[in-house]
Amino acid sequence: MLSAKLQTFGANAWLINSGWVGGPYGVGDRCKLKFTRALIDAIHDGTLDAMPESEWETTQVFGLKIPKKEIKGVPMEILRPETAWLASGQTKEAYISKCNQLAGLFNESFVEYSDRASPEVVAAAPKAI
Fold this sequence. Notes:
The protein is mostly helical.
């Protein structure tokens, strides 16, 4: 239903990280509210919609598009999870391992619903690397 509404009205859906950055729970930090607010402002004022496709990069495991450059008031380590993990002393391997773990949990849970999902939704599932 949401997908149909998004397509009908040409709307975008935005995923905003208001949780942990720089590592898993207990290692990283909560995303500061000022960064979440700055991202919401960038959505409301059209900044994100105005960015050309060439200024976005797609993450490997989850297929999410993330900006290649800073958004006003939001440092790159907030926009790019891997960068945040590295900046906090975590390794790239630890980041990839956690991504793969989360992808596996999602895919295990999704099996129950996949037969009712469209081919596009099934194809958008995370892919472990």
